[in-house]
Amino acid sequence: GDEFALIFTDAGESKHIAQLAQKVLSQFEAPVMIEGREVFSGASIGIAFYPSDTDNAEALLKFADSAMYHAKELGRNNYQFYSHEMTASANQRLQMETDLRRAINRNEFVLHYQPLVDARTNQPTGMEALIRWRDPSGQLIPPLQFIPLAEDTGLIVPIGKWVLETACAQLRQWHDAGHPALTLSVNVATRQLRDETFVETVRQAIQTSGIPHRSLELEITESILLENSEDTLGTLNALKQLGVTLAIDDFGTGYSSLSYLKRFPIDRVKIDRSFVRDLASDSDDLAIVRAIIALAHAMQLTVIAEIRICCRGSPICRPSR
């Protein structure tokens, strides 16, 4: 994203700065109309004080930057004041970025595969590729610890390319081993979708592996659909022309606007596990999931639910008729 610096002189107490920061954030709450379309945006704000934090201009910007990244780590769309502990955090971030760059060249990434199971037959119909990072000590680093950094630095583009190529090659092996109906699902980050070479990257991965185009599914988040929507629409249409399928990941956790289901060429919605895990005991979750399924089916979309343990006690897990 873009970065801007705001300088306030004689701002007074920190509570006054907090009020100013909140006013800035409030400006991003409403969508912006661009060529008749609603576009949503957000902001993360880092705050540093002169001279209490530092009397050096370069360090002041660095400290504000550290606070901004801390705001991002806390979920974005908030503000954070700099603290000296953040310097250590910033150094750790810099070290992880260095390690992440080396990991690409050292082939330290591995893919795990999660089965996608048909609720009616209880048979696997596909696999979802999940990236993990095995550091030199052999420890597996979960994606939540490095994917956000990879997106911020742009490293997600070469990492995502490796994931696509590796996963497609694995799918070809499964097809050749006698499982030609298996499909493959791969997560796509916002930064990847914005990359001008992404469609060609997908094309090359399919062509090199020799898998059928329709057997590859790309998962995107709801937030991607509301950022640079016209550019996103063009990219998704180009991907559809390749013959791949498109799914919305973590459906129901993003923005409330559902207009993108009509505008974008989506094939499937993936209900977030936060709605599924308590289906057997939470009537509200059950109602939400039923509504999502009904909406998806009415729009000729298929549905998948994120679960780790089958919710056999819930009526939602029973085949629909």
Report the radius of gyration as a whole number of Å. Answer: 22 Å
Considering DSSP H and I runs of 4 or more, what fraction of the residues is helical? 40-55%
The oligomeric state of the chains shown is single chain
* Overall body shape: globular
N-C termini distance: 46 Å
Structural category is alpha/beta
Largest sheet: 8 strands, mixed
Question: What proportion strand?
Answer: 15-25%
Mean pLDDT: 85
Order of helices and strands: HEEEHEHEEEHHEHHEHHEHEHHE
> What is the overall number of helices?
12
What does this structure look like?
With 321 residues, the protein is of the alpha/beta class. The chain has two domains: 14-83, Reverse transcriptase/Diguanylate cyclase domain (Alpha-Beta Plaits), CATH 3.30.70; 97-266, TIM Barrel. 43% of the residues lie in helices and 19% in strands. The protein has twelve helices and twelve strands. Strands 5, 6, 7, 8, 9, 10, 11 and 12 form an eight-stranded mixed β-sheet that branches. Helix 10 (260-263) links the parallel strand 10 (245-251) and strand 11. Helix 2 (57-73) packs across helix 3 (85-105) and helix 5 (156-176) runs parallel beside helix 7 (198-209). The longest helix is centred in the N-terminal third of the chain and has 21 residues, at 85-105. The chain is globular. The model is unreliable at 309-313 (pLDDT under 50).
